[in-house]
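User:
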Amino acid sequence: MDNSSSSSGVGVLDKTMSVLDALESGPATLAQLVRITGLARPTAHRLAVALERHRMVTRDPQGRFVLGPRLGELSIATGEDRLLAVATPVLAQLRDLTGESAQLYRRQGDSRVCVAAAERTSGLRDTVPVGSELPMTAGSAAQVLLAWEDPARVRRLLAAARFNENAIQSVRRRRWAQSVGEREQGVASVSAPIVGPGGRVIAAISVSGPIERLTRTPGRLHAQAVTSAAEKINEALHTQEPAAV
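Assistant: Predicted structure:
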């Protein structure tokens, strides 16, 4: 694994960060950490256990390593979540442009969580309250969050998913996803990836609403608007400038 482009020159720090980076996408066994980071197995184990002692890493019920509570505490301490800061006005603009509810999802283990939303003020809505935990096995946002995952995780979740490998390949090719009645009967959605400064997909931006409005080909109506909103957020995250609306 070549980390030369992001090397700080402090070897142990770079190796530690590679472990945290690997866990950003979700739970990982020691074998998966070794494969993703390129570290020797004893090194990966030693660093993961040390991070666990500092609550930067913890274990899920299956014994896999996951990001720990200390990271969330540090994020709160900064007083600002950069993603939410730049995404919130873009979500409002996307809602106004499409006339549909807009959401931002992050992956959390084997689920996805709505971390921000801009809801329609009237009419029939598909409301997803902030904080809602939804499955990674149904819905266009789940497709997006899974599409660039480690192949082993993709295979595991596809076994129980409402979509298949062909859908995932299509998402990778066109960089947006659509779903019709996957997560909830009568609801359609369109989603696109949000890419962090490190090139990793860190979130999905979506619009959702009744099939009666979005039709059975919601991408035809809203893929351009959703992908444009995603690019606006991506640009702001990479340039560290507020997203223009």
